[in-house]
Write a structure and sequence with these properties.
The chain is mainly beta. The protein has two helices and 25 strands.
Length: about 350
């Protein structure tokens, strides 16, 4: 009798699960998000565009964004630096991948945190080449005639070991005072940790003197971005774990200096070369975790500044490949008492006024 009851129970359970699976299979897809005219709602691109770099093509007014190599779970494997485009920063479409194959100057790794700039009539992409806990990551350079590529790899710029800086990734190109610089560096507990800068050659393709590097922050920052406004250079950097799914406490902190090379101080006057420094700009909320690693600030045609970054929807933190669903996000950046501010200090979750562009 017990045996009969057990068989009946198992049969009922299987049938129930089968019915539930069929219900899920037959469940209609969620309708597309409808947003009012002149508005937008986060995220602005899914499923993934982590560590975004954004540039506007002057001749067309089109924006292009580039993201860290990742497997979107779409059956196409790793996207080797996905390229997406937009006319207004809020409506993005996938174009293609920047690379058709991986660079060959390193035996293994992913192409992370690209930084795309228009230099000498070409599109230069400085990129990280690394694996998690890589003992000797590095930074390379690829160049294209168009923001849509194809990007042709020009090889290694340097390895961590050659710069004497641990975890030399996350490049950021800056021009200042007629000179070219590259900022780089990420998390490390080593004594020579932190984000550093070094002068590049006139063509931006090499580092003439690696011994002239200068230190910007301590080793608890990554994803450097510097924005010049008025008399100050504003440093934006991310802290904590970028990729812990719904539990991520990634966030952006800031400091400022009157010199590109620093010293950078936060609102409390603490130098960013000290651990635990930086004034908080944006952190997680009830909807989005891990907001961080922002692109350059974009100013719209109404004079508003916009902050593009990635974050993780806590309700769907990963894609089918297991990768963190680090979607592209957009929020307005305002300025109060000489410091950048994001409303509520967290990602927006409701409809917001959209950026203003005449080419939209």
């Amino acid at each position: 009798m017990k045996y009969i009851l057990l068989v009946w129970s198992l049969t009922t359970l299987v049938a129930s699960c089968s019915k539930e699976n069929k219900k899920q299979e037959n469940k209609p897809p969620e309708p597309p998000q409808v947003v009012a005219e002149g508005k937008y709602k986060n995220p602005v691109f899914e499923p993934i565009l982590a560590d975004p770099s954004v540039i506007r093509q002057t001749s067309t007014g089109t924006f292009y964004a580039y993201g860290t190599e990742d497997d979107w779970g779409d059956g196409k494997g790793s996207h080797l630096v996905a390229i997406v485009k937009s006319s207004n920063l809020k409506d993005w479409t996938y174009v293609k991948d920047a690379f058709t194959s991986k660079p060959n100057w390193k035996s293994n790794g992913g192409i992370w945190a690209p930084d795309v700039n228009y230099i000498n009539g070409k599109y230069y992409m400085y990129y990280s080449y690394s694996i998690w806990a890589d003992p000797n990551p590095g930074i390379g350079l690829a160049i294209a005639d168009s923001p849509q590529g194809p990007f042709i790899d020009k090889g290694k710029l340097f390895l961590s070991s050659e710069m004497g800086v641990p975890n030399a990734i996350d490049p950021l190109y800056r021009e200042d005072g007629g000179k070219n610089y590259l900022l780089f560096g990420s998390y490390s507990n080593a004594p020579d940790n932190g984000i550093w800068g070094v002068e590049l050659s006139e063509d931006g393709m090499s580092v003439p003197d690696k011994t002239t590097k200068f230190r910007i922050t301590s080793g608890d920052f990554e994803g450097a971005m510097i924005h010049k406004k008025g008399d100050y250079y504003y440093f934006f950097g991310s802290k904590n774990n970028c990729c812990d799914g719904a539990a991520s406490i990634y966030q952006v902190r800031v400091g400022r200096s009157q010199n590109l090379k620093g010293p950078y101080l936060d609102k409390d006057g603490q130098a960013l070369t000290n651990w635990g420094s930086g004034s908080l700009l944006i952190e997680r909320n009830e909807r989005f975790a891990g907001p961080g690693h922002n692109a350059r600030i974009i100013t719209d045609e109404a004079g508003n500044d916009w902050f593009l970054y990635h974050a993780i929807d806590r309700g769907k933190p990963t894609v089918s490949s297991g990768a963190n669903r680090r979607a592209l996000m957009l929020d307005r950046l305002t300025w109060e008492n000489g410091w950048p501010v994001i409303k509520n200090g967290t990602p927006s979750i409701t409809e917001q006024d959209a950026p203003v562009f005449n080419n939209d």
